[in-house]
Amino acid sequence: MNAVIVDCGVYSHGVRLDRPTTVAGLRKEAEDAGGFAWVGLVEPTAAEFESVKREFDLHKLAVEDAIVAHQRPKLALYDDTIFLVLKTAQYLGEDEVVDIGEVLLFLGPSFLITVRHGDAGGLGQVRERLEQEGKLLEHGPGAALHAIVDRIVGAYEPVLAGVREDLDQVEEQVFSPAGTNPVERIYKLRRETLEFSRAVAPLPAALTALAGLPQIAPELRPYFRDVADQAAHVAEQVEGFGSLLAGVLQANLTQVSVRQNEDMRRISAWVAIIAVPTMIAGIYGMNFEHMPELGWRYGYPAVLLLILGACLILFRRFRKSGWL
Amino acid sequence: MNAVIVDCGVYSHGVRLDRPTTVAGLRKEAEDAGGFAWVGLVEPTAAEFESVKREFDLHKLAVEDAIVAHQRPKLALYDDTIFLVLKTAQYLGEDEVVDIGEVLLFLGPSFLITVRHGDAGGLGQVRERLEQEGKLLEHGPGAALHAIVDRIVGAYEPVLAGVREDLDQVEEQVFSPAGTNPVERIYKLRRETLEFSRAVAPLPAALTALAGLPQIAPELRPYFRDVADQAAHVAEQVEGFGSLLAGVLQANLTQVSVRQNEDMRRISAWVAIIAVPTMIAGIYGMNFEHMPELGWRYGYPAVLLLILGACLILFRRFRKSGWL
Amino acid sequence: MNAVIVDCGVYSHGVRLDRPTTVAGLRKEAEDAGGFAWVGLVEPTAAEFESVKREFDLHKLAVEDAIVAHQRPKLALYDDTIFLVLKTAQYLGEDEVVDIGEVLLFLGPSFLITVRHGDAGGLGQVRERLEQEGKLLEHGPGAALHAIVDRIVGAYEPVLAGVREDLDQVEEQVFSPAGTNPVERIYKLRRETLEFSRAVAPLPAALTALAGLPQIAPELRPYFRDVADQAAHVAEQVEGFGSLLAGVLQANLTQVSVRQNEDMRRISAWVAIIAVPTMIAGIYGMNFEHMPELGWRYGYPAVLLLILGACLILFRRFRKSGWL
Amino acid sequence: MNAVIVDCGVYSHGVRLDRPTTVAGLRKEAEDAGGFAWVGLVEPTAAEFESVKREFDLHKLAVEDAIVAHQRPKLALYDDTIFLVLKTAQYLGEDEVVDIGEVLLFLGPSFLITVRHGDAGGLGQVRERLEQEGKLLEHGPGAALHAIVDRIVGAYEPVLAGVREDLDQVEEQVFSPAGTNPVERIYKLRRETLEFSRAVAPLPAALTALAGLPQIAPELRPYFRDVADQAAHVAEQVEGFGSLLAGVLQANLTQVSVRQNEDMRRISAWVAIIAVPTMIAGIYGMNFEHMPELGWRYGYPAVLLLILGACLILFRRFRKSGWL
Amino acid sequence: MNAVIVDCGVYSHGVRLDRPTTVAGLRKEAEDAGGFAWVGLVEPTAAEFESVKREFDLHKLAVEDAIVAHQRPKLALYDDTIFLVLKTAQYLGEDEVVDIGEVLLFLGPSFLITVRHGDAGGLGQVRERLEQEGKLLEHGPGAALHAIVDRIVGAYEPVLAGVREDLDQVEEQVFSPAGTNPVERIYKLRRETLEFSRAVAPLPAALTALAGLPQIAPELRPYFRDVADQAAHVAEQVEGFGSLLAGVLQANLTQVSVRQNEDMRRISAWVAIIAVPTMIAGIYGMNFEHMPELGWRYGYPAVLLLILGACLILFRRFRKSGWL
Fold first, then answer.
1. Is D207's Cβ below 8 Å from some Cβ in E?
2. A115, containing H or E segment
3. Nearest CA to A232 among B100, B70, B58?
4. Scanning B106, C210, D238, D312, which has the fewest C-beta atoms within 10 Å of its C-beta?
5. Which backbone phi and psi does B25 adopt, to 5 degrees?
6. Spatial distance between the Cα atoms of B35 and B11, rounded to a whole number of angstroms
7. Residue E268, SS3 per DSSP
8. Cα separation of E61 and A322, whole Å?
């Protein structure tokens, strides 16, 4: 078995048949057994994908898309084969980055092919769980498709939670008196949010359309509609984050301005406090012959006291008015 | 009766039948009596909901949604059963927080099941009122559904009023000469408004669609359309608040800038007033041998008067031009 | 006749029948005469509206709306009766406030009922004018309805004119060198504009739908379409005002910043002009034994001249570069 | 011929019939000749328009619109007569104003009536050109209508070019080091752009709808679709200008802020340069008995050199760091 | 062969027929051979295009568009002939300019005509590659059309990459401590992005419509849909860039404000450090007779030390609080 083919098997009446994991003959075996074949690939090259393409008679264009993998989420039909592109998302909390991967799915009457690009960890577990439960697999490849889509969309929730948490932190930073300026963080969160939004936004329409296709068994339709609803919920939340981040960016600008004003007031207060002794000292530094205070015995300490007093009064008034 | 089941009864021709409040057999009793069963639950677990699910043959997906309860407002059909998700809203004035709850409703030909998450206080009163009036309940479970929806949407009005009041206060703060900076308050109001908007925005379409379903009796349709109109009105108001809050955020930035300028002018005026005596004193502190003023008898008081005069003139001019 | 009933009459072939202005029997009289009844009410309570409701068999929901009157502009159908909600607008120039009222209309095959909330002055004149012209009333209650709608929408134009004038004044204020900060005025104009926009925006669609109803005579349709066009024109203008006010708010922020900079330059220039004499005086205030200038006969006046010259040169340069 | 009637003629098989330019009898003559009448009016009053209205049996509402002329671009049908409202635009470069006029057109099977409000210069030339070419007029009044619409939409291009040029100039101003603040110019360009946009935006839809009307000959349809495309192109460009002007407004605010900072740095640098001599002079102005430097022969020039040196070093450092 | 005609040939069963490259007779030859003619032109004048127009009976309007070439991307039908307008894009990295060209295509049952305006380099290579592969050309002119569209849309990807790279650089600049102000660069990138967006945005709809036309062979439809998807992907990315650039513009304004504050603090700290010695020196410059410090032997050095110490303490405190 080629290294890019993670797993492949034939399922009939919910049970995995005992056969070697090679692609050759898969389709016929599946059709003979009245079941379906399920092949999983990871980042295949054109050459590596060739055998799968031939076995299941996949359309050239869909195959190209599956190999290059820079698609937006979409649903396409090539003859009877459904081609579905989904984005996987994962939140890397320490970098505050939404890591976007891609899963491309081919669904035929007797086969399901999954092509994974980037990290989409849980897909293997989906197969394991389905194989153990068995019952779901009796409904054919559509049920397996639903399980995968459900898993991928379900994995958006922790991403939402991660972004929400970072947004909460950013809000706290912006409105805290500490005076940090999280503008870079806000911007980058917004960028990640935008990318995530692009991954999610086209999904509800695609999944709703999928639910209406004749290839999907009627009893599965509510399931696809349900996951479409969930995707719509995620898309709405992400859009809301974008709007909040725009608001926080503007609030931050105001906060920066306000802090700037506070700094300016503090500086100015100190400048004023220093300017007063300089002025008084300047007056007694004048060289007039007739300045009675200069001859007084306690003139000097008196002036020092005057200076100190003036400074203290100023200091208190600035304190009171909140400038210091 | 399980604790999560708040109440359950069978209504026939507008009258509540005398029976124990247990779930078992509800449906049959209701059908036999030509009436309908009405079950109310609060935050049930999957296990707790199991008996209700079996009794009324509810769809697995809708049940999952009803237990997890992180849905957007929506209308879904599972076979003949209408599944409606609504958000309840309550304004906590002292925290300026819109508290969002969730009510999920199952409507079948002979039953109405309400699942409440979070605080949705008035629902119990709806039942009481309906039981007393009786007449409305003759129209079947749809009339009870309408009463609940009407109650929930009606409860949006005080939320609107609360937000409007806070918005008025914020406007006053922004434009008052006191110079406070309500940027955090504005931002948080905006966040709450956004969340409320997400709770309300999908409602008009869902209720309009509901009004068109064949399960809803024709004479009830205008009622659902009326409440859809009311929801549209609320959604419009909320959107308007969002727009006003964005405007107030920007106006506040301008106000902060303007106040910054006013502070700067005041500071600068005082600096100038202090700088003048320093300059004059500096001149008479020069050590030239031939400075006639220094020898004058009243040179010193004259200079003091000069200094005082200069300061007064400056002070008055700054006053007049509004800098002080 | 109840005080809330402003006027009520029966019109047949364009002529008002001579009868007491009481509600009882209105409908039958109108139907017998092959004409229609026209009843005008002002802010009725539920009790006061009761007789009208019974006489014309109005739907409970529409009646509730007509009494509470916090509706958005809308068109609803209750059986054969058309229910139309319109907002009246009036510009109170001295307060720069758009005063919004509400008119609710019931149109049946043989009656027209108008319910007015708030000031909607001209409605009485509409009836007078129609009664004098007579001919229009031959077309039945639809023609009267059109006359009212036309009046209400026509009254939007002076509101537009008032807002436009205030916007022009605000623009002038923002860009005038006088340096006022009309941010509060801009914000409040924006708020009024938003409210007016909510009153007008749903109208074109409602009136276009109205024009298509079978209850409206074909020859009246172009008239309703025309007033729908006019409403669309108003809505577009109002939206444009909103956009301009957003722009003016931002332009004002720039102007405030620019003026801030100009003030800072002016202040700084004066500080520099004062700092130079202080520095020069400081130098000649040093106590070195060997400072030849100190012994010069005209050292002191020379230094004074130097100081004056330096200040003058600085002053001129600042003038030239536009800082003073 | 009334002064408001610019020209009127009957065209048959592409040739203008020789007849007096009076309205009376126009329609019959045109129908008899199997051709069409073309009447051009300028800002008629109701009285002046009366004869035309009667001759061609125009609808009262369209006539009112044509006289008042504050319509948005629209297409309306009154029985068989097409009523089209267009806005003409002209760029007055020296004032940077988009001058909007209005042309209202009535198209019947055997007539075309044009009503012009404001300056719409080229319309007369359209008729001249068509009369010379003749061939186009064989296609009936629809071809003449197209020629007029084509002319009006074609005249939008120089407006676009004018706005684009002013936008280029504004961009240059904003980013030039000269430091002018073109905020008023930006705002006014935006206002003009908005008005122009209102004149153009509804056009593509109206013209596309026009192209689909049965009154328009099939061979003319591509021509109307083509001009609709052109209008869409203009509308798109205008919208783009609006977006760029919003961007330039914000960029300008940043530039103003940056220049403010540069001014502040420059000022501060000079203040620091002046403060150093004052400080040094202050030190040697102290009256200690034992200050050896004061007795030095060359103490004074040494200190002057020290001061000069310190100032020079500061000046150079500020230069290097770009503050001066 | 005219210079504006780059190449023209007849293809039958995937093979290019051996014939002179003249336009005359092309169509008949192609029809006789059961193949199609392919003519490529570069910026033709009306005169130069005349022979092609006559040979293939092209519609006057499409020909005008093809000569003037200031069209938005669009799809139009003139009888049986498909007229498609596309924009080519190229990123000139050193100037950060998106260079937009135009390609206009006529597709008939037996011909494909390409008219190129501006630089659209790769089109010649498309023909070469197709001629070598041959097989594709068997599918008729539609396949050649697809190859061209695919090439043009494919060439958008490097433009995206270029803009993304510049955006990354701009982000780095904005958030780097170096303190440059890339506002002009941001604005110009935004302008280019907007222009690119206008070139791409109408494409997905046009190509999707094209894929549905009966003139396109069913087996080619997925290909056109695929390239429509790719165009939608590009349009989405471009829109995302626009949103990010708007965000970066605002973030930059905040950064400029923050840096302004930092500069102001640094300046103020130095002013304070200089003001302290001036104040102390001023005090010992007073002329009181009884100032014991003045008579002390080491008064002067002690004061110098005091001054130095005060300055050092201030310097350290400012360092610690991050002002210096």
1. no
2. strand A111-117
3. B70
4. D312
5. 80, 0
6. 5
7. helix
8. 74
Is residue D20 helix, strand or coil? coil
Chain C stretch 280-309, residues whose beta carbon is closer than 8 A to a beta carbon of chain B: 281-282, 284-287, 291, 293-300, 303-304, 307
Give the least confident one: A17-26, B313-322, C145-154. Answer: A17-26
Interface pTM, i.e. ipTM: 0.83
B101 SS3 class: strand
The pLDDT of C287-291, averaged and rounded, is: 87
Q: What percent of chain C has pLDDT over 90?
A: 57
Cα–Cα distance for residue pair E98/E100, rounded to 1 Å: 6
Cβ contacts (< 8 Å) between A253 and chain E: which residues? 250, 253-254, 257
D218 pLDDT above the threshold of 60: yes
- Cβ contact D291–E282 (<8 Å): no
Mean pLDDT, residues D17-31:
86
The amino acid present at E198, given as its one-letter code, is: R
Q: Could you tell me the CA-to-CA distances from E223 to A58, A115, D33, E203 in Å, in that order?
A: 14, 21, 55, 15
Residues in CB range of B227: below 8 A, 6 or more apart: B146, B149, B150, B153, B207
User: What was the pLDDT predicted at B291?
Assistant: 87
Q: What is the pLDDT of residues C230-244, one digit of tens each?
A: 999 999 999 999 999
| Alpha-carbon E157 to chain mean position | 10
Q: Is pLDDT of D234 > 70?
A: yes
d(CA D285, CA D291): 10
**Main-chain dihedrals φ then ψ at residue A266, nearest 5 degrees:** -60, -50
Q: How far apart are the first and last CA of chain E?
A: 75
pLDDT for position C132: 86
Cα angle A176, A177, A179; round to 5: 90
Do C106 and C81 touch, CB atoms closer than 8 A?
Answer: yes
Percent composition of chain E: helix, strand, coil (DSSP 3-state, to 5): 60, 15, 25
Give the one of C229, C251, C275 whose C-beta lies nearest to D183's C-beta: C251
Does residue D104 contact residue D69 with C-beta atoms inside 8 Å?
A: yes
Spatial contact of A24 and A51, defined as CB atoms under 8 Å apart: yes
pLDDT of residue C145: 95
Token pair for A219: 């009893």
Q: Residue ranges of chain B with pLDDT lower than 70?
A: 1-3, 120-122
E70, E184, E306: best to mutate for the D interface, most D CBs within 10 A: E184
What's the confidence (pLDDT) of residue D275? 86
pLDDT in tens, D150-183: 999 999 999 999 999 999 999 999 998 877 889 9
Name every chain D residue with its beta carbon within 8 A of the beta carbon of C283: 277, 281, 304, 307
Dist CA A234 CA E39 (whole Å): 51
The DSSP secondary-structure symbol of C178 reads T
Helices and strands counted in chain A (H then E): 11, 7
Report the pLDDT averaged over residues D250-265. Answer: 85
Tokens of B266: 């005041």
Tell me the two tokens of residue B239. 């959107």
Q: Which residue has the higher pLDDT, C189 or E321?
A: C189
pLDDT of residue C121: 62
Q: Helix %, strand %, coil % for chain A, to 5?
A: 60, 15, 25
Closest CA to D106 of D82, D128, D138: D82
Which stretches of A69-106 are DSSP H helices? none
Q: Do D254 and E249 touch (CB under 8 A)?
A: yes
3-state secondary structure of A75: strand
Distance from CA of D307 to the nearest CA of C (A): 10
pLDDT score for E121:
62
Instruction: State the pLDDT at residue C63.
Output: 92
Q: Supply angle C-alpha A309, A310, A316, rounded to 5.
A: 90
Stated pTM of the model: 0.87
